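Hi there. Long-time user, first ticket. I'm pasting a complex I've been working with (about 837 residues overall). I'd like to know whether the download I got is complete or cut off, because the file seemed smaller than I expected. Thanks.
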Amino acid sequence: MQAQSASGTAPVLSLRGITKTFPGVRALNAVQLDLYPGQVTALIGENGAGKSTIVKILTGIYQPDEGTIAVDGQEIRFPTAQAAGAAGVTAIHQETVLFDELTVAENIFIGHAPRGRFGLIDTARMVEEARHLLASIGADLDANIRLRDLGIAAKHLVAIARALSIDARVVIMDEPTAALSHKEIHELYDLVEKLKAQGKAILFISHKFDEIFRIADRFTVFRDGQFVAEGPMGGVQEADLVQMMVGRAVDQIYPKRPAEIGAPVLTVAGYCHPTEFDDIGFTLHRGEILGFYGLIGAGRSEVMQALFGITRPSKGACKVEGEVRVIRSTAEAVEAGIVYVPEDRGRQGAVKGLPIFQNVTLPSLGRTSRHGFLRLAEEFALTREYTRRLDLRAASLDQDVGLLSGGNQQKVVIAKWLATRPRVIILDEPTKGIDIGSKAAVHDFMSELAAQGLAVIMVSSEIPEVLGMADRVIVMREGRIAAEFVGETMTPENLVRAAVGIEEAA
Amino acid sequence: MTAASQPTPRHIPDRLKSRLSRTLKSWEALLLVVAAAIFVANALASPYFLDPWNLSDASFNFTEKALIAFAMAMLIIAGEIDLSVAAIIALASTVMGSAMVAGAPVWALVGLGIGTGLACGAFNGLLVAGFGLPSIVVTIGTMSLFRGISYIVLGDGAFTGYPPEFGWFGQGYVWWVFSFELALFAVMAVVFGVLLHRTNFGRLVYVIGNNATAARFSGVRVDRVRFILFLLTGVMSGVASVCLTSRLGSTRPSIATGFELEAVTMVVLGGVSILGGSGSIPGVVIAALVMGLVTFGLGLLNVPGIVMSIIVGGLLIGVIALPRLWAMMRK
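Hi, the file is complete. Here it is re-exported in full:
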């Protein structure tokens, strides 16, 4: 079965019924995707919709459980990244996978460098060909310079030159503009036009609607690992796409209980950081869940880590219950009653290799011990109390945290902080990558905490989660607070607009 | 995972395996068997082995190194290392020798020896915890630095003529065959065992060794713990310096050469992961006994020192490799 685009050409690459399951999560459920020569197809979806999974399948990093991949109508498999490359599929990632210590030419030709006598690399020819490739995309770069001396935009150009060097037919661009300046983005658009003119099929993944409308010819929307819709960009409005992306009755899924919003607990004023964020100020109240929404890289986690004492703001003040607090270390943050559940659970959250109870009691050892000596009975009692409230699933409290599922590891991290009886709990992408059952438990518990008077900050990139759980939403864009929404104004459309920077009147 | 969640939270037991079964399957138990085997083999090989005074003499083979190994074990569990310990002994001994020449009393010599160790440990700790430098690089540097100072002070010479009362720390007996050093070894084994296994501080050592980033994200003052560990190692090196200087009755700049590797060997043989995060003090105690028994037994059989070091090296590799080979064979 061959789909036909409006222009009548057949797709270069066609995916049908692709399903991919990870333990506890169905990342993709029978999705389809078609890419046409000389056209840019935008893949649209929230974080967690399955976009990165499909990229990994296309580049041979993951194998689909079910479904078919066809190139020019011929069914094919990509058992390895090399196989995908040989079939002409190449990807340019957000963080380009290139080698900092090698030169531009070496990066372009790594793995398929022109060979000279004795099978050695013919450096002169390689540099010459690299120059041609770079010139063909209008990139003014020295082929002999080492990659680490280049900026992100230039690295993208190298990645694109590399894609051309292997004569790719399908180019995947995964949020290529995320780290680029305004001018660099426009140069990238020009380049995309050139690639189109050469007949490449381009899969363009982006959260930014302005650029999707600017360069895409077609769109495909995924939601929660499902295919939602596809079509030409011509006949679609921004609002339609947002609707397709979000597309579910939000408040049925999220069990937000009404909580009485009380006095201010945390007041942040004028927090600045030389590179990450600028002039952040907000007030958080008892019983409130304050959502922080924004694109990846908008500076949300960086603000939270500054509040938690991981980094220090260059300017700004923070008050907890009216008292000015200078937070220079995480220990001081915990003393001030501010705790942080990090996004990077495996590295920053749980101490893998140590048992559950030692993880839970870690910041509370002062309470479970006597004169500095451990009291295991107290530790088990405290762990039991908090893990029970979170409905932890584990074989024993002595089990290595590293053996638990992602959702249960998250519960251990949350239990660890609740045991310190904090005033403010900051949850950074609290349900990212965890299974649906644990997700519901975490949401339910968050709601209960707010009802008990705790002040909660929830950083999330999932619109339904933000809208379902938060009483108020602050949207950040490029390190600044872009907008704040309460009540009626908290709509998916408003959040997305503020995050990507579309004017209200558009 | 979408199955209906349980109405009430499930009961989770505290532990699945009993303490006894853990102990029996532990590395320490295996090491104890090795120690017993070496003891029996030695007793059969030489009629002089079982003499209490001979055994007591043998303990000097390991007591000073073991004092350092206890602190080193905590440092390695926390993911750091200190290779300057033997150089600290040399510097502390040199300081004591200089003070002795100047006529300082015995209590001042002891204080200066331990104080020098403390200062050296503080210097290492400042560079590692304060400036974030890697400990292996820092302590290779201070290894040359500390011993270098000793060489500048002493040249080819030596401090001799320590007062007889000072000799008690290395040559004196507390009761019957039990020397001061052996008693100190036993006391320190208990002190460090309690510190590592029964206190909050010891818990933090394991946490940092397993994941220092997560420790920091859990409100642990990671650098403070690291600094204290370097202080402790410095102090124990100072204590070892007092014992060793007292036992030898002299100070040469080459004193205690190679002690750092023997201390690390003891720690690793004792089951401490060189990558940090796991290990125990009882393991190090048994490892110290094993090494002491092996060197003493071989000495009775008139095995030369070079061969002895080959055997100790082989023992280390063998004991570390055997469990892995065993696991591979069963697969």
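A couple of notes from our side: The radius of gyration of chain A is 25 Å. Chain A has three domains: 13-249, 261-337+425-506, 353-421.
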